[in-house]
Amino acid sequence: MTHLEITRRSFIVTTAAAGGGLMIGIAMSGPAHAAAGMAPNPWERPTDKDGQEINAWIVVDPDGTTTIRVGQSEMGQGVFTAMPMLVAEELHVDWKMVKVEYADSNRHVRNNNLYQRMSTGGSGAVRNSRVFLQQAGASARERLREAAAVAWSVPRDQVVAKDSVLTAGNRRGTYAEFATRASQVQLAQEPAIKQSGQFSLLGTTLARLDTPLKVNGTATFGFDVKLPGMVYAAVKVVPVRGGKLTSFDFNAIKGRPGIIGAYALKPVGEQPYATRIDEGVAVVADTYYRALTALNLLPVVWDLGPDVALNSREYKARLAEAVKLPGAVGRNDGDAIAAMKTAVKTVEGTYFTGYNSHTCMEPMSCTVSITADRVDVWGGFQNPPGALAVVAEHLGKQPVDVYSHTTFLGGGFGLRSRNHEVRQAAEIARQVGNRPVKMLWTREENERQARGRPAAMSHLKMGLDASGMPIAFYGRFAGHSSAAQANPTSVANGLDSGTMNGIRDHRYKIANTLIEGHIRNTNQNIQAYRAPGYEHNLWHMEQFMDEVALAAGKNPLDYRLELTKDLPDWQLVLKTLKQKSGYRTDLPKGEGMGVAIGESFGSIIAMCAKVSVSRRGQLTVEKYDVVVDCGNLVTPAIAAHQMQSGVVYGLTDAIYRELTIDKGAVVEGNFDTYPLLKINQMPVVDVHFALAGGDKWGGMGEPACPPTAPSLGNAIFAATGKRVRDVIINQANLSWT
């Protein structure tokens, strides 16, 4: 989630390690498949084409097909199209001849992080990879031009590169003809890359390159991996985190068909929090059905540990007590306490959001093969080099002897970023021995081992002057901190400022702001959840801003405009929202519109939700208008899809979902108790771009989630006069008279 600055010099030095270019391998390459006895993946370049690598990201085959390699993981967000477009913009390649394949994390590790960035998260695929991908395309283009210039005895500036063809006067040649010579060219200086306003391909709508594979069923996901001689593992961990496995009776199942063994899962040595193995048991068989059936029949004795009395009600009460007390200071502008005493009016509100699971459509899986000279690991990884490193560390291998092969991901959202399932699979494979092991989680196990959104509570107070404008803001936050759970000493002064994203870093013009925080952890494991911090905290902050505006007698949208008048990009987004949505506060009872705005991962997103609520409280979400400023666009259609996806995710969380804890364990196990938004509940979502341009490149995968829930909450209040401060909305009484 950090911004990576790449200079031309560091680009040249780093990529020189590839020997002749910027070579980046493929995560599930044809040779890797052949070694495992698998058919090549359909998105990969056939190995018999003998293509020429011009540089790390680019291979040109004799027939002119240009393969562009992608270091980011495709989990539905469109990187298999957007990343090649960044290269192709500079390469001037014929887009109809472009193919795409995954980069090779083993080569990445062997060549000192050759590919700059292979961890997918933080909405950073475009904004953190753009510069070096454009540079790769520009460098290859100039090498091709130079190769042709030398062959034709003309200056390079007379050679034109367009649509995979090189021309100079009446001379003409294809990229394929000059690819070999181009790979040997050393440029005296790397070319400059295009800037905003100079693009011809970026900003256009192209068909996604991965769509045909997902439509015809040839796309390979982690669940689809199949190797010769592979066996299957079903797992069950202790229901209460922090508990232990006491014993299990293998004799009760060992005579069942296909059973290979049952194995204890326990931490080995000092394991980091993010990938620590929860104690449990794995049953391995020749089919998954046999493994899972036997596991469900296996007698297991658990020591449930010290947290068996934990429940959601008690934890919520702990948070409520915490926000009554002064805490560690996360932001202190001016003197909020003194200014509050001079306020003509004060407004207060307490808001709560519970634990949540990522609930990826594809539950977690991982396949590990251990042989004498290498280890291979297959799965849907958000961080393929991280998966490689976890396996190497756990098995005591050198990283160069481990090969991670990335499949398509059936959703990620942060869940697949830390590779905790990879360590579990590696441990099972270690115990099974010299045969590939495919570990699969059931949906229920996916929820039991959930590492999702933290629970949090905020008490917010605003002081207003006689004109209704804010003069003091005092907020107290309490919630779960993954940083403190991983390493308590790493959290300075008892404060994890990241947990307060969306409140601590508000952009409203308020002279006096004091934000304090408390860490209150439980036995639950949490990690990055789509738009960490912002996703739940904007539910608190943006509903509160509506309450403040209404208490001041102001139009909520105009109030936000007034409080951000010194922020031109916020003004652009809010004014566009006002124009496109037709936001009104005078709709008939039972109808309402609500707005919210947030800035995260370099993008500003404002939303207007329109709802209707029947007298009996039946909620219908009619429409969302979404206005986006991400600076620049690679492909508008995919960007719009990301906004729509964020609305689906945010609505599902707001209306339906909270993981509850009882007797120390997660209660919800499948979609019957932990539902998703259904297609007939999906509102119309109109996406509007209000782009600042320039050098601004914001993320798209996460920023749409945070404003979704509060704009809905504000619309519900406008329709019913009822303020929902605790999600889930589906459990609230919305009836009105």
Report on this model:
With 737 residues, the protein is of the alpha+beta class. It has three domains: 8-216, Aldehyde Oxidoreductase, domain 4; 222-305 and 364-440, Aldehyde oxidase/xanthine dehydrogenase, molybdopterin binding domain (Aldehyde Oxidoreductase, domain 4, 2-Layer Sandwich); 312-356 and 452-731, Aldehyde Oxidoreductase, domain 4. Helices cover 29% and strands 22% of the residues. Mean pLDDT is 92; it is low at 1-48.
CATH fold node name of the largest domain: Aldehyde Oxidoreductase, domain 4
Total strand segments: 27
Question: In terms of structural class, how would the helical and strand content be classed?
Answer: alpha+beta
Q: Separation of termini?
A: 48 Å
Superfamily (CATH H level) name of the largest domain: Aldehyde oxidase/xanthine dehydrogenase, molybdopterin binding domain
Question: What spatial form do the alpha-carbon principal axes imply?
Answer: globular
Indicate the mean pLDDT: 92
Share of residues in helices = 25-40%
